[in-house]
Amino acid sequence: MSIYILESEKIKSMIDNNEFDLIIDIRNEEYYLNGHLPKAINIPMNEINDEMDFLADYKDKKILLYCGIGSQSKATCKVLSINGFNKLYSLFGGIKGYKYELEK
Length: 104
Known about the structure:
About 30% of the residues lie in helices and about 20% in strands.
């Protein structure tokens, strides 16, 4: 089990190099639609448990989770880790700490 908390510069580099198998924005849909990381899908934090069947294919793959300020994504990483996920990443400071262009 590994949870990595990385700064926005490292996350941007990893996104640019297609190093993540899945990027999940755990904020509510309204926030996601206003701007999200490239290639991110939206699964709000309160729906993660409902999406475990979908997520199961990614148990041994690199998953980046992020939220607004970083605290909820760390907590969600812990939930996934308890459920057998092995390569989890969280954006330090959340999307507020991400210094690069967002997709809409």
